[in-house]
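Memo to structure team: turn this sequence into structure tokens by end of day. - J.P.
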Amino acid sequence: MRAVMLLLMLCLPAWVSAGIAWQSDYEGAKRQAAEDGLPLLVYFDARWCSWCHRYLEETLSEPRVVARLQRRYLAVKVDWDARPDLVRAYGANGLPYTVLLGPDGQPWNRFVGLLSADDLLARLRQGGVGLDDVALRQVSPLLRPSRLDAAGWRQFEREWLAYLDRLWTPESGGLHGQFDSGLSAKWPQPLSWLWLEENGHWAARQAAGRHSELRLWDELGGGFFNYAEPRAEHLETSKLLDQNAWLAAWLSGAPEARPRQAARSALAWLGSLQSEGGAFYLARQADAGYYALDARGRAQAGLPALDPIIRADSNGWAVWGLACAVQRGAAPQSTLAMAEAAMADVLAKLQREGRLVHHYRDGVLGQQVWPEDWLALLAAGAALQRLQPEADWPERLADILQAASDWAVSQQGKALDSDRAALLAWVVGQPDYRAAFAEGSLAWALGNLALGAETLPDSLVPGLAAWQRELGREPGPRECF
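Reply from structure team:
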């Protein structure tokens, strides 16, 4: 009976919330809010987010919350995976994520996490009055490169390492401290650990970092969970595609047997995300009750629910991570075959007449195009090409490369978000791609790298590596960066 109940729970859609008249058209909701003179609650959700399910069931379905929203607000639900532009525009750094907008569309308040009904009601009553989570983020000014020569590099590297020091938490043995804003850093940072390892930094802490990330390993089912709250030890029980690929890439090169075993389990688990054509779906998710079952109980309940979305950017990052694992000599050649099949299928599924779209879900092709999609797939292509020069991935990615180059020309000289700048710098710096970009593209991208109050360390790694490469440091035969 318990297994049946678990299966029923796993089949519940993430969009169920009784009572609230959720709108799904963000732009239309903003227009209606302006016309009606009402503030707007914008709620970011994802099918794979188990904490979002709890938020919907425990807080957003609470009768007092429903009544308040029905009387005083318009409510719109945004699909995190389908609208990365809104995730970026509102600085969403975790789920569940909620934004309150005034009738004029200006942000009043933004907050991340599962709030109680009382806490949410207090914020809804407060409206635009007083400090919010965003105001607290302004404690640390953005630090950008002062110059792009070797001296500028050394200064920026020192600042980045000092930033990691502030995030270092001896109790958890990893980068799980407080951002400069006071919010928690709870996600693993495998690219940062890789970069530190390849550059000879923090040798003692790498082992501790491996220990901290193993808290997320599902020994029974394979793969890694999304995050654990550093202090409360709450697990986000989803398992995400690209995070698992990069944790596998990093941990598979460890000298200890346990991390390598965890990495192998993640590589095997990624096979459960592959579609029939080879492209990866985004995630599998179940609640904590499922993961508390023993092997027999899990077998009876079946595999956790699959989020049937194929995203261009997530597949690009995952393929890049898998190629990294092979480059390090820590993954079998079958991993390379899996990565190549995913890459080819993404291009087949998401490209139409040379135009790449962001996602494919439930048999429906999306419409939006985002620069991160182009850049992540180009980075993956460069990593595959390095392993198999005869594969000619630059030619197969020619349309995407042209689209990325045209976009960069249209934006050059403008401000770039730091994570986008870091990824662009890595792509522009690849020998097979450099000639496709306008003169000065790399310097423009590197100049937009920034350390802020809530910078995720991993987001800067491609830019740091691109900058090093420009200064003459080429990655070694078994190095990714």
